[in-house]
Fold this sequence. Notes:
The complex is a heterodimer.
Chain A: E1 5-13, H1 20-28, E2 34-36, E3 49-51, H2 76-91, E4 110-115, H3 123-131, E5 134-135, E6 140-141, H4 143-153, H5 156-160, H6 166-175, E7 181-184, H7 190-203, E8 209-217, H8 221-229, E9 258-267, H9 268-274, E10 280-289, H10 302-315, E11 324-326, H11 333-347, E12 356-357, H12 360-363, H13 370-384, E13 386-387, E14 410-411, E15 416-422, E16 427-434
Parallel strand pairs in A: 4-7, 4-8, 11-12, 11-15
Antiparallel strand pairs in A: 1-9, 1-10, 2-3, 5-6, 8-9, 10-16, 13-14, 15-16
Helix pairs in contact in A: 2-6, 3-4, 7-13, 10-11
Chain B: E1 6-14, H1 21-29, E2 36-37, E3 50-51, H2 76-91, E4 112-118, H3 125-132, E5 136-137, E6 140-141, H4 143-148, H5 166-175, E7 181-184, H6 190-203, E8 209-217, H7 221-229, E9 259-268, H8 269-274, E10 281-290, H9 303-316, E11 325-327, H10 334-348, H11 361-364, H12 371-385, E12 387-388, E13 408-409, E14 414-420, E15 425-432
Amino acid sequence: MTKRVVITGMGLVTPLGFDVETVWQALMDCQCGIEMIELFDASTFPTKFAAQVSKDFNFLDGLPEQLRNNHKHATRNSGFMIGAALQAWQQANLPAPGSNDTNDVDMPRVGIYLGAGEGPLAFDSFINACVFSWNKEKRQMDWKQWGQIANEQMEVNSEIEQEANMPAAHLANLFGTRGPCYSCLTACAASTQAIGEATEMIRNGEADILITGGAHSMIHPLGVTGFNRLTALSTRNDDIKTSSRPFDVDRDGFVLGEGAGAIIIESLESAQKRGATILAEIIGYGSTADAFRVTDQHDEGRGGTAAVKLALADAGITPADVDYISAHGTSTSENDSIETKVIKNAFGDQAYKTPVSSVKSMLGHLIAAAGVTELVTCVLAIRDQVLPPTINLQNPDPVCDLDYVPNAPRKAKVKIAMSNSFGFGGQNNTLIIKEFSE
Amino acid sequence: MSKRRVVISGLGIINALGADKDEYFNGLLEGKVGIDRIKSFDPVSFSCQVGGEAPEVKVNKFLPKSHRKAAKLMSRDIIFAVIATDSAMKDAGLKTRADNPDGPIDIEPTRSGVNIGAGTMCCDLEELTLAACECVDGDKFDMKKWGAEGMNNLTPLWMLKYLPNMPSCHISIIYDLQGPSNAITSGEVSGMLAINEAYRHIASDKADIMITGGAENRINAMGQIRHCLMDRLNTKDNDNPAGSCRPFDANANGVVQGDGGAMVILEEYQRATQRGAEIYAELKGFGSSYNQSNYIDCEADGKGCEIAMQAALNQAGLKPEDIDLIIPNGIGRIADDKAEATAIKKVFGELAGEIPVLATKSRIGICGAGASAIDFATAALIIKNGKVPANINCDNQSLGLNMPTTVTEAEIKNVLVTCYSHGGQTAAAVIGK
């Protein structure tokens, strides 16, 4: 028998607040976290808005004075990650960071698995080195000059922090963990995949306790440029609060968000031995690839369907057992119609009876951090027996004909919830959680 | 439930010694060094001007016709992974969708996956700058002009060339691999962690075949400047590239970077034998941990390395005396090498001075996310060939390790491969006959 895996702590840093209860209340109030971009001058960009984490958030506030030095250079995504992980770690009642008393927690059995993004590029020094070293006549770089400007303007700590392994490194350092320390980055599916693979590690006995989840911030000039060039972002600059419209016929792209989510997962034995409060059990995980095209999802949702079916089989349940689906629901034309097909393919007639919603309508798309954030809302839906809504769903797309919990939260009996994440490039991941009972 | 056995049935390598595994391994045996003055950009104003650059190879000949259009979406990192995968597939003798678009294939798509360690890919700086060079207002970059006009000079799919999951994405498409697909981004240990995860997928019956490894194009202006700024690179041997990387040597002057990667085919043991595959070695044990430090230096006593190595031995059910060869990270930075040697001594005790150690970085540099995958594949080649290449640039040993400086022929039963990233991640694997 493989080990049962449970969730014992959760933390969020999002555009709608920097603790779990604040974010959850905002979702219940149908608030929208989208604002004009303040992080850089996007006034001439095709998309001028995003869902940003408030300036009031400072991750250092949550850290004991003596631990700040190792983390003071953290960029936005690592800072978000630290903020979310601290909440989760405390809720799980694990030993305070920096304390010598580890309460019988065996640190080589405690690890990290994040689906976290690269740190935002230190744009000014980077672009200065490039544009002021360009030889216009030869149309090539003057590398000598590039090196000189880079040496003068680039700052070592800021460069280190741009590596994608740094959010995980910060957590291992902060909590003193000695177990496995993984990061993956499968685009928009990353943190769901991290949680799934972390679950597998515990099931197989490779660790007892893992901090998992993810962080990302792509609200920087080249991030927005990249998505704008792909025409993936909404450009509804005149009505930004309704710009994220999953499943609506007028949806015109996703809205970039940023933030982090963390959960503590552990073997049931470990949680019971520590006397931790169990918030939910992870019972199913499915992971597949579309293996179709670099630029598009498989048009019939082949990989997504397989991921959902694998997760159901892994959990040993049928579609009728699933009380709620937290959709990937990005508000792009392609995703929302294909995801609807995926649910129908995997659920058959049951698809029309199972409520589906997308909190991306309120939070924007947290990219690598999206999956964990949505999984946290699934745990809360089970706790409070209520479903978060899909807001801005005024004119449902005829091809999106499921129950998307439009525009208002809904009381419901929720025992089992499913969360889907589909990454750009074809990675599909599905998690299933269940109300805990022995 | 007993775990299924997992074997290596094919491999492909690209790095400064060649774009082919045999060229690389023969280069090692012949004492060749791939490290030279950097040629892909003029490094004159960089403090470290040497590196192990991989050869320029046209990727098209490694791609099926159906995927050649997508070659323009491949950064050099992706190209390394694609080339290494092509040779690994051929080496394994697998009939795949790539060469058999309609005919029978040896791979069941939904039971086959991919897991590749990737670095933080740097965009083509000249391509970006060509688009941005008009967006200047005096001595400042003009963001308004960039947003309104400049960005439109970039090809619409520009960003897709640099996403870390794209090596996995392209390879899953080329070979129709619809099973698990992941991209591990854990610095220099990425390749090894990817291999470990792929191993678990097969051992726990989620897949039968996994294509796994890692690759990175570290030698570009951004990759080089970052590590120069970290003060990790060798700045004293710019006129002596071939002697610049000196693992475990008392006169080592720092790290030398390299380009490249390796991909291995992992296969469930029964399946591999039934189809008559030639097996390199079996994966016996893995471990991973974390070095507590400052994100630049290895933890002084290598504690995280020690935990990973011990865990790998434990999982393999082997004792120190069962190990015939150690392939360490061995990067040629005195404090880091000392830390790693300390960890090896903790795990191996008195045997630490006896078991042969082979450091590959003196030949090819440290190839970012591909580094540990290259060492892993090297171990498989050594087991299969019964030949251990010689160490070079380690004339002044002071750390008490056994680093033979001649090629030895011996039956190698078990090899321990260990690695760490400057960010702190550590991993170790034991593979055996």
